[in-house]
Amino acid sequence: MRAGFILSEVWSGLRKNVSMVLSVVLVTFVSLLFVGAAILLQMQVGQMKDYWYDRVQVSIFLCPPDSEATTCVEGEATDTQKKNIEDQLNSSELAPYVDEVYFEDKAEAFDHFQDQFKGTSLEGTVPEDEMNESFRVKLKDAEKYEIIKESFSSTQGVEEVVDQNQLLDRLFGVLNIATVIAVAIAGIMLLCAMLLIATTIRLSAFSRRRETGIMRLVGASNTFIQLPFLLEGVIASAIGATLSAGTLGLLVHFGVSGWLQGQATGFSLISGVNVLIVTPILIAIGVIMAGASSLITLNKYTKV
């Protein structure tokens, strides 16, 4: 009997305040859409780091004949200098960091250059004898690339140490900034949602003050009086959270897993599985937000 009465009160409240309920649903939907996007973006950053950091290399470019670098005063890198660099890479000091070392001669460098710029204006612009020989170093921990750079940047016979991680750090930095912006927008929208939920509950409680007064007279507890109002906010917020999760699922399915994955075939992107992981988080945030906002309001306006 009590459960039936509470459910009838909840339905009555939702029906009488349709416009306000829709407002709560929409603002919750938008705010949690940003929250979900921020979480998914960080998941994508994590996947990209795992993929790229496992494949990037540090390139130690040796001196060509006409280099003006201070470490190339003797001209092109000599066999002795190459041997010293190789021995240092294989030394016990760098063993904890270096996973694999590969030497690329001029012929291989020229072939890679031609393949990379095939069909462009740069193809064939650099002759083979002007290509840099290099040591390509794969690290055990790609984020420790600074150790290699510091070890060889002033070594005789080395013109330049280039680490691909610097480019990746810039990319991930931009993605992290985008995440912060999404979180900031989500925070503002969540605050708006909480204020709107509080207003909705207050108006609902005011419109039913006569029923509430009768319930007080017959000895109803605070919990019994407040529960229908609390459920109204929670239900509206849960609907908004579910809609945001569904929208994210469609965007990921058609936009990321569908179109974008076809363009970026080299590595995996987030998928519907990631959205399934995020969905309960969004619903939990929506329910907790609505519950907290409703309780604060109800304690003020419906307390016996």
Can you summarize this structure?
Keywords: Cell cycle, Cell division, Cell membrane, Membrane, Transmembrane, Transmembrane helix. This protein folds into two domains: 2-52 and 169-301, no CATH class; 58-163, Alpha-Beta Plaits, CATH 3.30.70. The protein is 67% helix and 8% strand.
Topology:
Layout: H1 2-16, H2 18-52, E1 58-62, H3 79-89, E2 98-104, H4 106-116, E3 134-139, H5 145-152, E4 158-163, H6 165-207, H7 209-217, H8 222-263, H9 272-301
Describe this structure in words.
The protein is α+β, with helices and mostly antiparallel strands and 304 residues long. It folds into 2 domains: 2-52 and 169-301, no CATH class; 58-163, Alpha-Beta Plaits, CATH 3.30.70. The chain contains 9 helices and 4 strands, in the order ααβαβαβαβαααα. The protein has helices spanning 2-16, 18-52, 79-89, 106-116, 145-152, 165-207, 209-217, 222-263, 272-301, and strands spanning 58-62, 98-104, 134-139, 158-163. It has a 4-stranded antiparallel sheet. The longest helix is centred in the middle third of the chain and has 43 residues, at 165-207. The chain is elongated. The two termini are 22 Å apart. Residues 184-300 form the ABC3 transporter permease C-terminal domain. Part of the ABC transporter FtsEX involved in cellular division.
